[in-house]
Write a structure and sequence with these properties.
The complex is a heterodimer of chains A (288) and B (332).
Chain A lengths: L27 E5 L5 E6 L3 H20 L2 H17 L1 H12 L3 H21 L3 H5 L1 E2 L6 E9 L2 E5 L7 H11 L4 E5 L6 H11 L8 E4 L3 H10 L5 E3 L5 H11 L5 E3 L14 H5 L1 E9 L3
Parallel strand pairs in A: 5-6, 5-8, 6-7, 8-9
Antiparallel strand pairs in A: 1-2, 3-4, 4-10
Helix pairs in contact in A: 2-4, 3-4, 3-7, 4-6, 8-9
Chain B lengths: L3 H10 L4 H11 L3 H10 L5 H12 L5 H14 E4 L7 H12 L13 E4 L4 H8 L5 E6 L9 H13 L4 E5 L2 H5 L3 H15 L3 E5 L8 H13 L4 E3 L11 H18 L4 E5 L5 H14 L10 E5 L2 H14 L12
Parallel strand pairs in B: 1-2, 1-8, 2-3, 3-4, 4-5, 5-6, 6-7, 7-8
Helix pairs in contact in B: 1-3, 4-12, 5-13, 5-14, 6-7, 8-10, 10-11, 11-12, 12-13
The chains are: A alpha/beta (288), B alpha/beta (332).
């Protein structure tokens, strides 16, 4: 740094409705690198921030679901492009957050880009494995098609700050859902930077909303919120999941529990996408 | 007393003995010239000051028990409104059912103050409400533009009253007002008031078309001098509809009018009030500017349609702790 120049430190904020607000509570919390050094002060989201995020997601979801599958795939691919371009920055942040060597972190960032491309490709192909032309006893076409569930609350994995986040977020939004994501409490920095990637990738505002803060404060409110249709409890430990599942049952949310010891580098499968889709069946007369 | 103008100004300042007030008011409304002189003599509104005060009051934090009280009070002040070309008897019927029992799962929710419909649907609303305490309000006088002859406007009012309306929401002739024909506006409100008889008259100023806060203050006084029971911000058909600074100016007018004459005139905020937070801001404004006496459905109304669901969602959040869903309440 040149002599006499003031340090310009970044303010890490929330990502709600396509904008980057501070927490309405005005709170923040210190985030430390794996080696204990202070990395940043992240926004400490409140229940009201979460409520605002759900309102934004609810407002954005119908239009995102109406966007053609092909177009949604392009948008996901665009996220991959933007992430690729900032790979060096992410590698540095992942390395510091997770305490990894530079090459290892670079590999995780590359895997994150590939993960987005993987799900982008599925956007207009999922109906071929999850849908069907059903044989029926009458002169009708009978189709079953996967449709998005709606607004999905996602608790991102605590350990894998970028690859884990991308691996749970991409399958939710590619099918036309909107997401309210609670980032890793201990390692939120790559997630906030990823929100900047989303904001510059043609993802409509509100389709992804990202909050940083205390899981103990946010998760129960997210689970009980009656305007959330599905819940991915990836970042919740086994013993805390039961209470959240009970709260989620109030409006019969679809709940995806955490896998035991998830390996985010493993080759993905379409299964995550299929958790948050609903099957719609349409009858249509064949005619003459 | 030096000149007529000074004497009239004293009415507005509230420094006159009650016995003299009646005579002074009669004097003010005796001729167009006297009225114009009176309105021109009203103190000007400090626009920046009004904006700032409204913004400052909007930041006041209302929580917990006070918020619960405010939500119930706001619900009891709602004029549940549907004013669309596409209104059907079925929709009005559904609205009336909702007005009497806003949350079917919770009988402790108070009924709203009134339903507000077009004159031709007053009969439907009346029969749907039956013996319910909910009033039937009807817009009239060629709502929303008010561009019709006086005979047509008065016929519109009679139509609504004969169908059973308890309250009439009239629009002022903004064209006449902006052209400076205050006397014509006054006469028209007086004529409608006479036609209303015992029914409550709300006078819509359509502040979005009045351009300045000074005009809002003058229009408020004109309506009150003519005998309005309520002054109402807007039709909801013009943007900007109800704003906090305009509400402030109108609340100051009813406060000053009450100080001068002893008669309490109500205020109805309508248009653009969609969230509980907005509604509570208007309650704070009314309490701080006009006074606690105005925190009653007889003197304060919120004209809205989507607001009620937000109030109900907030109420349920307070009761159960979980945020309500967008499909938990009926959409009219």
């Amino acid at each position: 740094m040149p002599e006499g120049r003031l340090a310009v430190n970044k303010t890490y904020k929330l990502y709600v409705a396509g904008a980057f607000p501070r927490s309405e509570s005005g709170r923040s919390y210190p985030v430390h690198a794996a080696d204990g050094a202070l990395l940043a002060n992240a926004a400490l989201a409140s229940r009201k921030d979460l409520r605002d995020a759900v309102v934004a997601a609810r407002a954005a979801q119908p239009k995102w679901a109406r966007t053609t599958a092909y177009n949604r795939g392009q948008v996901l691919y665009r996220i991959a492009e933007m992430l690729e371009e900032r790979a060096a920055q992410f590698a540095e942040q992942v390395a510091r957050s997770e305490g990894l060597a530079g090459a290892e972190a670079g590999r995780l960032v590359a895997a994150s880009v590939d993960r987005l491309v993987y799900y982008a490709g599925w956007s207009d192909k999922l109906a071929q494995i999850a849908g069907a032309a059903n044989p029926v006893a009458g002169p009708y076409f009978n189709f079953s098609l996967p449709e998005p569930t709606g607004v999905i609350g996602v608790v991102a994995p605590p350990g894998s700050s970028l690859l884990g986040l991308v691996s749970v977020l991409a399958p939710v939004i590619v099918t036309g859902n909107a997401a309210v994501v609670v980032a890793s409490e201990e390692r939120p920095v790559p997630a906030v930077t990823f929100a900047e990637v989303l904001a510059t990738s043609d993802v409509p505002g509100g389709v992804v909303n990202l909050l940083t803060g205390r899981l103990a404060e946010l998760a129960p409110v997210l689970a009980a919120h009656r305007d959330v249709d599905g819940l991915d409890l990836c970042g919740i430990s086994e013993q805390d999941a039961a209470a959240l599942e009970r709260a989620a049952a109030d409006n019969v949310k679809r709940v995806l529990r955490r896998e035991v010891a998830p390996d985010w580098e493993r080759r993905p499968s379409p299964r995550r996408m299929l958790h948050f889709v609903e099957t719609k069946t349409v009858w249509h007369p064949i005619g003459a | 007393m030096s000149t007529a103008g000074d004497q009239l100004r004293v009415v507005a300042s509230g420094e006159m003995a009650p016995a003299q007030v009646g005579a002074a008011l009669a004097e003010v409304t005796s001729s167009e010239t006297a009225l114009r002189r009176f309105l021109a003599g009203l103190p000007g509104v400090d626009q920046v000051g009004a904006d700032q005060r409204a913004a400052a009051l909007a930041t006041r934090s209302i929580k917990a028990a006070a918020k619960a009280w405010a939500i119930d009070t706001a619900i009891s002040m709602v004029d549940l409104t549907t004013l669309e070309g596409a209104d059907t008897p079925g929709k009005v019927h559904a609205l009336c059912m909702k007005a009497g029992r806003p949350d079917p799962e919770d009988p402790s929710v108070p009924p709203v103050a009134a339903v507000c419909v077009y004159p031709d649907l007053v009969g439907v609303a009346r029969s749907a409400l039956g013996s319910s305490p909910v009033k039937v309000a009807s817009v009239a006088t060629a709502f929303p533009s008010g561009r019709a002859s006086r005979a047509v406007k008065l016929a519109d009012v009679r139509d609504a009253l004969e169908a059973g309306a308890d309250e009439v929401d009239m629009v002022i002739d903004r064209g006449a007002f902006l052209a400076g024909h205050y006397g014509r506006v006054l006469e028209e409100v007086q004529a409608v008031k006479a036609a209303c008889g015992p029914a409550h008259l709300k006078v819509i100023l359509e502040t979005g078309e009045l351009a300045t806060y000074d005009n809002v203050r003058r229009a408020s006084w004109t309506a009150m001098l003519a005998g309005a029971d309520f002054i109402k911000t807007s039709t909801g058909k013009v943007a900007p509809a109800s704003t906090l600074p305009v509400g402030l100016v109108m609340l100051e007018a009813v406060r000053d009018f009450a100080a001068a004459t002893g008669r309490l005139v109500g205020v109805k905020f309508a248009g653009g009030i969609r969230s509980t937070k907005d509604a509570i801001r208007y309650l704070v404004l009314a309490n701080e500017v006009a006074g606690e006496a105005w925190l009653e459905p007889e003197l304060l109304r919120l004209g809205a349609s989507s607001l009620l669901n937000d109030l109900l969602m907030q109420r349920r959040k307070q009761r159960t702790g979980a945020y309500a869903g967008s499909q938990d309440f009926s959409v009219e």
